[in-house]
Design a protein that fits this description.
This protein is of the alpha/beta class and about 500 residues long. It contains 20 helices and 13 strands. A hairpin with a 2-residue loop joins β5 and β6.
């Protein structure tokens, strides 16, 4: 029920289905980043052993170098935990080194160092979770599960969706992760001015359209939905609908060799966004590294709603919430008690195709590199285990805005106070629920050439939203380019 031309009626979303894979043509465009790290992509990894005993046998303090990419409050949390860990014992000393302004930058530096000499690599590497397949295939990672089992760490404390998402070949690779998930931010004052319930944000894409229409009809905002065209949103929409973006069960039953995201569901999502843009309901922005214009659209009240990562909660609470407290911005929000020209931020679950809140976790993950000496590997795990402690996981949430990868924080007093008394905590509540309730049976796709994959999806959609291209040929071209990249990666 899709077409290559723009339609003036709304697309209907189909029932979930699972694709088995498509026979695809290869594109002619080559990309260097699609080459496998070691020349041949790995299959199931061999069983690894964690050298815990090497730490006890080491002479003096073992120095562990950590490469990371964080800024602002999140960097402050990491450095505070490094300082407290170093001060609490004298066996291991962590040296944290900021390698850039983004996950992509630190990963590029890792790739450059790995290509030159493993002697230049750190002991611990923090990078984006989309690199999982490539990190495994590169052969430089000690699966954290080996250390967890050797150290008798209770893996049942890890959120089920985290274990399923970051396990390859039966082994959990990252030893720590600070997570995020997309949610809906909105201005409660605008909802009240438009006659909408300010405590009832839209749950689905259909409701999102209707809400945007009501806001525009009421003259509240020029383009009600500020939308950064991120591959992450398309991935979550399709995954929740049971649609694979690559073959081999989303790369979980074997190395992904074909892209499969050109589906009726994907076309309908893009068609709805296109229609919203035509009708002046969408305020679209390209997904540019470091871009902030989509935030400013809310701050200037040009837009009333924004789909963004949960880690934006602190920033949005700061420049939208102003002096509001959690009680004033929460369910007790009273439109009659404030000036409705004031910004009052609220959040809702990620609007889905058929239901809200169906979005998986993403974010930064920490790898122990096996290129280090055994004592450094053991020391790296010692620090990761420290970060996994309840107090430290809670700090990542309450001060850094990142969602915890462990369970059991609901009873933590600092977490309870944060959720009840802080605007940022109030805004994070839907995100915390999404991660806690996310199904471990539908993990994200595993893709080796992750950058080519994400670029292919975004380029296909952006051609429609920003260049007026037709949906069908744009998606087909993007899928063919990604398939070509996957083929080069698989060798």
């Amino acid at each position: 029920m899709t077409t290559t031309s723009r339609r003036r009626h709304r697309p209907s979303f189909r029932r979930p289905r699972r694709l088995l894979g498509l026979a695809l043509a290869a594109a002619l465009v080559a990309a260097a980043c699609s080459e496998p790290p070691t020349g041949v992509a790995a299959s199931a990894p061999a069983t690894a052993e964690c050298p815990l005993s090497a730490l006890a046998e080491a002479d003096g303090t073992v120095e562990v170098t950590l490469w990371y990419s964080l800024g602002g409050p999140t960097q402050e949390v990491l450095l505070d935990q490094v300082d407290r860990f170093n001060a609490a014992q004298d066996q291991v000393r962590v040296v944290a080194s900021n390698q850039g302004a983004s996950f992509q930058e630190v990963y590029r530096k890792y790739q450059s160092a790995a290509a030159a000499s493993t002697d230049q690599l750190p002991d611990l590497l923090m990078t984006e979770d989309t690199t999982l397949q490539a990190m495994v295939d590169g052969g430089n990672v000690l699966p954290a599960q080996a250390c967890m089992e050797a150290d008798e760490f209770d893996m049942d404390t890890l959120a089920p969706v985290v274990r399923s998402s970051y396990t390859v070949g039966g082994q959990l690779y990252p030893g720590f992760a600070h997570l995020s998930t997309p949610i809906l931010y909105y201005n409660k004052s605008h909802f009240a001015r438009a006659g909408l319930d300010p405590n009832d944000p839209p749950d689905t894409l259909d409701e999102l359209y209707e809400t945007a229409q009501a806001l525009k009809d009421a003259g509240v905002s020029d383009r009600p939905l500020s939308f950064k065209s991120s591959w992450n949103y398309y991935k979550n929409w399709l995954t929740a609908a049971g649609v694979d973006l690559v073959n081999n069960d989303n790369g979980r039953d074997g190395l992904a060799t074909e892209a499969t995201f050109d589906t009726p569901e994907m076309r309908d999502v893009i068609e709805l966004l296109q229609q919203m843009d035509d009708e002046g309901l969408l305020n679209p922005f390209a997904n540019i590294e470091g871009g902030r214009d989509h935030y400013l659209a809310l701050a200037s009240q040009q837009s009333s709603m924004l789909i963004e990562t949960s880690t934006a909660s602190s920033a949005i609470a700061s420049f939208l919430g102003g002096g509001l407290d959690a009680e004033a911005a929460g369910e007790g929000f009273d439109p009659d008690a404030i000036d409705l020209n004031q910004l009052v931020p609220g959040t809702g679950v990620f609007p889905g195709i058929e239901a809200g809140g169906e979005a998986g976790p993403g974010g930064g993950v920490y790898y122990i590199l096996n290129t280090s000496e055994p004592a450094q590997q053991a020391g790296s795990w010692r620090f990761l285990r420290f970060m996994l402690e309840q107090q430290n996981s809670a700090q990542w949430f309450t001060e850094g805005g990142y969602l915890p990868m462990i369970t059991g924080l609901d009873d933590d007093e600092s977490v309870q106070a944060f959720l009840q008394d802080e605007v940022a905590g109030l805004l994070l509540t839907p995100a915390l629920q999404q991660v806690q309730e996310a199904s471990p049976d539908e993990p994200d796709p595993l893709v080796g050439p992750a950058q080519d994959f994400t670029d292919g999806i975004e380029d296909a959609v952006d051609a429609v939203l920003f260049e007026g291209a037709d949906i069908a040929p744009s998606l087909q071209a993007g899928q063919e380019e990604v398939t070509e990249s996957l083929g080069r990666y698989a060798g």
